[in-house]
Amino acid sequence: MKHILIAAALSLSASMGLAQDTRSFTDGAGNVVDIPLQAERIVSLRGEQFTAPLVELGAPIVGSTGNIIDGVNNGEPVIRGAYDLFHTRFTEGGITHVGTSTQPDFEAIASLNPDLILLPDYRAEQYDQLAEIAPTVIINIWSNSARERYRRIADAAGRLDRFEELQAVYDFRLNEGRALVEQMIGDPSKVSVAIAEVRDDRFRVYKVYGAMSNVLDELGFSKPELIENIDGERLDLSPEQVQLIDADFLVSSYAEHFRAPPAEISGYWDVFVPGWDQVLHAPKHNQHIFIAREPMRALSFQSMSEVLAIYLASIVTRDFVPFEG
Amino acid sequence: MTTSVIEMANGRFALKLTQLVLWVACGLIGALIMIFAMSLGFGSYDMSVAEAFRVLWAPEEGTQATVVWKLRIPRFVAACLVGAMFALSGAMLQNVTRNPIADPSLVGVSQGASLAVVALIVLWPDVPLGARPVAAFAGGMSAALLVQAIAAGKQSTASMRFILVGIGVAAMISAGTSAMLAYGNINQAMGALGWLAGSVHTVTWTTCYILGLCFAVCLPAVVWSARPMAAFQFGPEVAISFGVRVRRDRFLVITLAVGLAAFAVSAAGPMGFIGLLAPQLAQRLAPSGTGGRLVLSALTGGVLVSGADLIGRTIAAPIQFPAGLVSAVLGVPLFIFLIIQRAKTSQL
After folding, report:
1. Under a CB-based contact definition with an 8 Å cutoff, are residues A159 and A59 in contact?
2. Domain map of chain B by residue range?
3. A140 within 8 A of A28, measured Cβ to Cβ
4. Distance between CA atoms of A302 and A185, rounded to whole angstroms?
5. Which one of A97, A124, A234 has the shortest CB-CB distance to B318?
6. Contacts of A112 in chain B (CB under 8 A)
7. Where does B78-309+323-344 sit in CATH, by number?
8. Strand pairing category for A32-36 and A136-139
9. Domains of chain A (ranges plus CATH)?
10. Residues near A119 by beta carbon (within 8 Å), at least 6 away in sequence
11. By Cβ atoms counted within 10 A, which residue in A82, A164, B127, B316 is the most buried?
């Protein structure tokens, strides 16, 4: 009799363990979704925006979108951002590839029996199918700041505690950086930094561009007026407008595997904006900074910490020629 | 050749089909049944055809039922309807313009719908998703009406004028779409590009119900259109002698073709070549009169899109290729083959 009671108690506790406790979560589109208190099988439908922060949070990811990029990972699909920053791979990480962000494979997602699916807002048309498979949460990408977006992801995954820990560490480093700026430069807004790139026959400036712009803003540096006034995150300019982005420093990203290796960046500028390195103050005085694009785009405190270190080394702790604009 | 006559409404509508057309129609229906069976049984979710059919007959709660009833069947149904509507639209436009390479993009339907949806995605991203099909339909219809209004002219040159105006307006609208894609938010632009590829990836039963309703509403008009279309084949002068009110009926047939294409585009995005290819293939499979051609075109369109979707979602899973892309990739060589064949027989 005693054995029967123990077995019954074990069976009951096991079945209770399987049925997850849930809570209501209002997502970016206003859907009120019942999600697990702490998700155990998450499918992420955006690599550098969702999978990377989930990896940093230590959340259990069972599936993610990915891309096949020529020359990377032996031709196997990679999770953009997470691969470059944390070297997260599908096979080794126990994560199943569920297709691309544009058209994920719904059946592959269903096979994983997920308990939470994270969907970016600009793919909201996929919501109805995904919601049939598992609780699906829409996360707004562009209408949220990086930190707010990260917090929402951590909240949905039930990892807010870990988020707060990581944030506290980063804020400590950021405040140390701000103190260094004050000590070395004084008023950071006196230093202007422009983020600009020439790529695919386009001369593009950015107001918002992953950790590159986020950390600049958090350190308090200013931007050229044209960039500051962009309604959105970026703007394509004519080469004739190059002087409008003149600043103390120029920041560009490079990417080995996306037709933009660092050795060729200057060449692209030469072709599309002839004489740029004589017209613009920053390249003329060796104040043009290059940052690896893929790790920088991965939403994470590690990415922000790395970019912070680059700015402290390349702007704050060195002598530079000020732009007299 | 032996013919069969299908009569409706006490003989007011009669469809005369040759034995060859009937056989080809049966073959196409068989192909659709085969694609349906394969669509049920094949996919990334591991399930045998037998299991899929078991779930089909005895639906129950669970992942298998979700995959079969919520993912696989709506895709197949929507693909068939979209294909049939594009094909009917193409067949009608080819008849009215007496131009074998006419398709919905010729009258700006695809471009108008694309511009409207891309504008909605890029300029007003907060507008609810439900507005996209409405915008696509409105954009497609507006572009086509603009083409018709500008092209309205002397009867004898109407077809050529119509084609030239259509090409011009379509190019102008496409330029607007390209500009928005180039200057819009990159993720919104990518979302729009996904829609432009043409896919039934995100269709639900609601999409199928709406498409089915639109198809059902258009069907009597399609049946009616066979009569004036039969006369149009001989040119406007002869058509008048048959008692057809050429100007009015031509406008109505074009409007019907535009409506069918606009409904299809609003559900699945623009799909290259279906409107062009399906009627041509149908004519190659079994040369027939107007009614037979419409029937075969619709069936061919359904086979092409549902087949393209099946291939697109299974061939390199989990990578999903949109049906529009697959149909274009498969359609180009087929189309070139048809042109070469036509050149050999001096028909083009």
Report:
1. yes
2. 78-309+323-344
3. yes
4. 25
5. A97
6. none
7. 1.10.3470.10
8. unpaired
9. 20-158 (3.40.50.1980), 170-316 (3.40.50.1980)
10. A45, A126, A127, A130, A136, A137, A138, A139
11. A82
Instruction: Read off the pLDDT of each residue in B82-93 and give the average, rounded to a whole number.
Output: 95
A99 to B320: CB separation less than 8 angstroms, yes or no = yes
Rounded distance, CA B149 to CA A268, Å?
47
Three-state SS at B245: coil
The string of pLDDT tens digits covering residues B279-333 is 988 988 888 888 899 999 999 999 999 999 999 999 999 999 999 889 888 877 8
| Report for A167-171, A288-292, B52-56: range of highest mean pLDDT | A167-171
Specify the DSSP class assigned to residue B17: E
Contact A230, A287 (CB under 8 A): no
A233/B125 Cβ within 8 A: no
Give the pLDDT confidence score for residue B154 in this predicted structure: 55
d(CA B330, CA B277): 10
Rounded to whole angstroms, how far apart are CA atoms A259 and A70? Answer: 10
Q: What is the pTM of this model?
A: 0.87
Task: Give the CB-side neighbour count of residue B270, counting CA atoms within 13 A.
Answer: 26
More confident position, B87 or B254: B87
- Rounded to 5 degrees, φ, ψ at B273 are 75, -20
Q: What's the mean pLDDT when you consider all of chain A? A: 90
Q: Hey, CA dihedral for B64, B68, B69, B72, is it positive or negative?
A: positive
Residues of A with CB under 8 A from a CB of B: 68, 97-100, 102-108, 110-111, 113, 120, 122-126, 128-129, 132-133, 141-142, 232-234, 236
Q: What's the rounded Cα separation, in Å, for the pair B108 and B275?
A: 13
| Rounded CA separation A311/A146 (Å) | 18
Tokens encoding B5: 């006559």
Question: What's the full length of chain B, in residues?
Answer: 348
Q: What is the mean pLDDT of residues B267-288?
A: 86
Q: Are B316 and B331 in contact (CB under 8 A)?
A: no
Which stretches within chain A are classed as H helix? 2-18, 52-57, 82-86, 90-93, 106-111, 127-133, 146-157, 160-184, 210-219, 225-228, 262-272, 276-279, 281-284, 293-297, 301-311
What b/e sequence results for A9-33 when a residue is b if at least 16 CB atoms lie within 10 Å of its CB, and e otherwise?
Answer: eeeeeeeeeeebeeeebebbbeeeb
Q: Give me the mean pLDDT over the A122-138 stretch.
A: 93
Amino acid identity, position B317? A
**Chain Cα centroid distance, residue B183:** 30
